[in-house]
Each structure stands twice: as C-alpha cells, then as structure tokens.
Specification:
Number of strands of chain A: 11
Order of helices and strands of chain B: HHHHHHHHEHHHHEHHHH
Distance between the termini of chain B: 41 Å
Structural class of chain A: alpha/beta
Largest sheet of chain A: 4 strands, parallel
CATH architecture of the largest domain in chain A: 3-Layer(aba) Sandwich
CATH topology of the largest domain in chain A: Rossmann fold
Shape of chain A: globular
Shape of chain B: globular
Strand content of chain B: under 5%
Number of strands of chain B: 2
Strand content of chain A: 15-25%
Helix content of chain B: over 70%
Structural class of chain B: mainly alpha
CATH class of the largest domain in chain A: Alpha Beta
Oligomer: heterodimer
Distance between the termini of chain A: 23 Å
Number of domains of chain A: 2
Chain lengths: 406, 349
Amino acid sequence: MRYTKLVFAGALTLALGGPVVRARAAEPGVTATEVKIGNTNPYSGPASSYGTIGKAIAAYFRMVNDEGGVNGRKINFVSLDDGYSPPKTVEMVRQLVEQEQVLFLFQTLGTPTNTAIWKYLNDQRVPHLFVATGATKWGDPRGHPWTMGWQPTYQAEGHIYAEYILKHLPNAKIGILYQNDDYGKDYLKGFRDGLGPDGQKMIVSEQTYEVTDPTVDSQIVNLKESGADVFFNITIPKFAAQAIRRAADIGWKPTHFLNNVSASIGGVLKPAGLEASRGVLTAHYLKDPDDPDWRTDPGMKAWQAWMHRYYPEGSLHELFNVYGYTVAQNLVHVLRQCGPELSRANVMRQAASIKDLSLPLLLPGVKINTSPTDFYPIEQEQLARFDGERWVRFGPLFDASRHPSM
Amino acid sequence: MRLENADAPLAPEVATPPVRAAAVRPHAVRATAVRTVGLLTLVGVACLLPFELSDYRTFQFTQVFIYAIALLGLNMLTGYNGQISLGHGAFYGIGAYTTAIMIDRWGVPYGWTIPAAGLVCLLAGFLFGIPALRLEGLYLALATFALALAVPQILKHFDAWTGGSQGIVLSKPSPPAGLPLSPDRWLYFLSLGLLLLLLLLAWNLLRGRTGRALVAIRDNPIAAEAMGVNAALYKSLAFGVSAAYTGIAGALGGLAIAFVAPDTFNVFLSITFLVGIVVGGLASIAGAVFGALFIQFVPNWAQAISKAAPWAIYGVFLIGFMYVMPRGIAGALRLLGRRLARATGSRPG
C-alpha cells in the first residue's frame, strides 16, 4: 500500500515538477557526436548462453556507427557482465547510471536481475527500455513509467492459444501441465484470461510440477485419465521432452500446445522423438534462420551478411542473434524518432509512441505498436505446427493486444 | 609432521619470549599506541569518505563492509576453528530473507530485522553445527556444500513467504528522522558501525580463553580435549556465532540491494566468501576487511581489463596473490611489520 502511494507520489512529482527541472540540466550521456547507452548481460555464469544477445546488439551498433550513426551521433554501447546475479546487476547499473552517465538502459537481461533495478531506475527516471524477459509485469506505465518490455509476454502467448481453442476447438476438454512458479503461473493467467469465465469450464485438469522433480510421468497419466483432448504444455525444455515422450508412450493423442520457451527442435523435439512430436503446436514472432521459407528472404540475407561482417564468431543458426539484431533495430528506430532532442523524457516518449513498425526479421505482418498506456511492443504471434522435421507456420497472426488486461 | 613443518618458520619468534619480552615491553606499548592511533585514523577516514565519494562509490564501500562482516564470521569458523565451510552463502541468504520477509510480510521496521536475522542464523548455525561435529575436513566441506546447494531451492519452495523465484522487492531504508544523510550514506554508516561493533566483539571473543580454545581445537583436538576444552560445545558455538555474523551481513546486503532472490545465494557466493578469507588472511580479524576489498573490487578490475575473459584475469589475480602472499594480505602485512620492527629494533639506541 505504502509502496503504491510512493510510486504515485513519484509519478505526480514527475508530471508536475520533473520536466521543468530536467529541461535546465544538461542531459547525461549525450554529446554532439555521441549517445551513451548502458546494458547488462550474463556473459558469465549459469545463464551465459544468453550472452550472445549482448554481443549481437553491440555488433549491430558497430554497423550503425560505420554508417554514420543516428542523427549524426555515434552509439557508445557500454555492456557489462552481471553473471545473472541481481546484486551484481544493481552494482553494474549504478555504475552505468552514476559513473558512466549513460542516457538510458537498454535490453538488460533476466527477470530477477531486472526486478532488482526496476525501482531504482524508475526513482532515478532513467529509461529502462526493451528489457530482455518474457514476464508480464514490465508493461506497467502507471506504476513504472520508465520501464518497458519488448518480446511477447508469457500471458500474451497463453492468450493466443486460448483464442485459437475458442475458435477452432469449442468442445475441447483441456488439460494443463505447468511449472509451479512465476513463469508457469504467468502463462496460465494469460491462458485462463483468454478463455474467459465460460471458457474456463473447458479445463478438466490442471497438473503442476516442481522444477526439482525428476519426471512428469504421473502428471501425464493423470491428464490422460481426466479425458482431456487438448493439452497445454507449460514446461521448460527438459520436462517438455518428457511430456511429449510420455504422452506418446501411453497412447494419449491430444491437440498439444507447447509453450514457445520449449520450441527448440534440437533441444526438445529431437530428444522427445521426432515422430512423437509430430503435430505439436507453438507460437512464433521471429523468423527462424533455419526455416527454408526464408532462404531467399532479403531481410534474412541482410542478417547473414551482417553476421559475416560484424559478428563472424556468432552462430548462424542461433535465434538469439536474430533477436539481438531485431531489438537493436527497434532501438535505432526510437533514437531516429527522437530527432535532435535526445533527453531521457523524450526517449521514453518516443519509445511509447511507435506506430505500426515492421522490422525485417519479424514474421510478416507482425507490427510493433506502443502508446503511453501500452508498454507491450510485440503482441502478435503466429501458430506453427511441427511436421516431423520443422515448424510449419499456419493460419493468421494472433493479436493479444485487444484484451483489456494486456 | 606436515603441520609442524608448516608452522616452523613462525615458531622461533613465538617461542623465544623470556629474553625478548622484557626488552620489547616498552616497544610493545609504543606499538599498541601506534596501532590505536592508526586504527582511529582509519575509522576517521572511513567516516569522511562518503562525503568525498559519489553515491555509487559509497555504495561499493558499503558492500565492502557488509562482505567484511560475513568474512569475519566465516574466518572465525574456518580460520580460527579449522572447520571448512562451503555453505556460508546459505546463511547469508537466510539472513537476507529473514529481513526481507519481516519487512515485506509483517511490516517490521528494518532496524529490528538485523538482530533478528543474526538470531535466526545463530540458531540455524548452531543446529547445523551439531551434526557437523561428526564430520571433519573435507567431509564437513561437502556437508556445508550441500547446504549451499539446497538453500536456493528451499527458498523457492516456500513461495508464499519468499515470493518464489521472483524474490522480494524492498524499499531502501531511509535514515532516522533528523539525520541529514542520503539513503546511500546512511546505509554506509549503518554498515560501518555494525562492522566496527562486530569487529570489537570478535576481537574480545578471540583474544581470550575462547579464542585459545578454538585455535587449540583446530591445531590438535585431542590435546585440547585432554586439557579440558569442551570441543563439541566450542565447535557448535563457533558454527552458530559464525552463521550469526554472516546472517547479519546478509540482512544488510538485502537492505543495500533492496531486493532478494533465491539464486543470488548460490554456491558461487559461498566460494567467493572462502576466497575472501583465504586472500585476506586466515585467522586474522583485519584479514576480513582485506578479503572484502578483494572480492568486491578485483572482479570489476578483471572485467575492466578484459571483457572477453574476466574470470581468467580474476584467476591470474588470485594465483598471483596466493603466490606472493601465501598467508593472505593480513599475513603479508604482519610479516612486513615484523621485519620493520626488527630492522628498527636492531638499531642501537
């Protein structure tokens, strides 16, 4: 309660007195020739496989600088290693804001790490843009007006599956398996909200597992016995593979929705068995570099050329490198839109007024839209079905933005 | 055999008091006076520091003090009592969560949560110390390692209290009414004050009977018991007090970061503490402060030197330190002091 009041008081001060004070002070991180942007990424530690995102972003800015920068300013991208440890993130972000004097933070990675700096950056009124996590809480313009997410949220994705079920499988009996933590519950909330009060009656069984459990075998048996013919599988890769395999072993053949978190062919579907995985559904928003549909796509070709030139040590099969490239393009768009007025307030204003932006490696039709009340840039995804070899996209784009809670 | 050899270089200096003691006595008094003045100067400098430094640097030094408290705790157990712990990150986490839960769920003022965290960890450490009595050396190290592995998962399990893997967001503690300090400076002085208090307590505890008993158990448990030291009691007490220190540090750490999450308190944190006490100097009170400076600043320097391989650079630093100062920074300084004293003492007059 006290916290909410504090935030409101903060927002009020900002609205009334903020811009006046700001206008007089010189904006940190901006000179006539340079704009300084801060970032933290796990280049070491348990989550270091994400580190390639930070490297891809830095490589993209190198290209932008070689081409003359943005509005005559070069981008100075200061990216520090936080090892995915929240205290380290706090220290590094304070270094970036107070010592390095960056204009804003961009793509800081991880849910716990961003949670640790969330309040600090909003108190300091430093833009905290396009954070690299799928949690839904980042789109809170009233409580946290300086923080914005980027990728579709877990809730948005759950919502999309619900929409599909309501339309195409109206008589479904739904069984759900989810990981018993914030990530699992975030997906579940989006899914239930999407079904609505009537639709929720379609759920016949909800099973959970702990991330420390050895298997999910008994949960799959329970789901089969509940008579469910639609399965929403909210699991991380290890358990996703187990669930697919177990369902096939006991002869349960539901319409199977697999969360995008575990949509990796090499990491999940192959270990589960390609035959057993046939027919599984998921949602995508980026172009997969391994998808033969994009072999002649100009956007994909430009990406490959950029990879060869600016990030040759990175993998050409890595979706994270597509992700880093695309989110960096989005930021450059925001900076261009800022024009000559490169202030913290204006960066935030422009980030919150993106209209129908399409980027080359987003799936065709996916458009980025934000507004002062909508801090969820990407909310469209397309369903894909696994045909035993690869994901085959089908049907229209789904848009989760029409839902009031989004 | 090995132990005796290792201690041999020090033995003569310790074992020749009769002649030197009388001669050195006025010298020793002067040395104590010099040390007191030196200490007071250091404290004075520490009090002025935050008014000269940026908020960010102040925050870094606050972390140094917090780590120093944790290292002091671990050093009592490992340095003085010879019990190796690879699990002190767990106590640090328990301390941090005690504070966070008390503030977030029960609305307790933060000042009360710091001693509470110490008490909770005292109890946890004491209880863990009882089964640990049966284990020694590497076996105890493994048992504490298990503790370090288990705690993050246990914290996630009780998510109704701990907030699960999303952790708990806290507000930065504000200074008491009337004190003209920014929150960063207030935390700095709070940590510094607690560090000094706990240093004093540790010094009192370790220089007398208790300290001798702890060291005796470390060096020769059988002889210690034969002389009437209750080894079981002292060992579990050492565990409890050590955990309490680390828990208080954890409580301060939680307040300084204003956020706790289970994966912060992982095995790596425990190892970092062990690195801290070894680099700082085992069985040395001042060593805790040196060790804290090392674990706070050296990883950052390593990153500044090479972004590609910061941990390789860190490793080089670590090997370098251990090679040049095998008894830690405190040990090296003590040796240096002794050489200086001998050099000045040998001068006539």
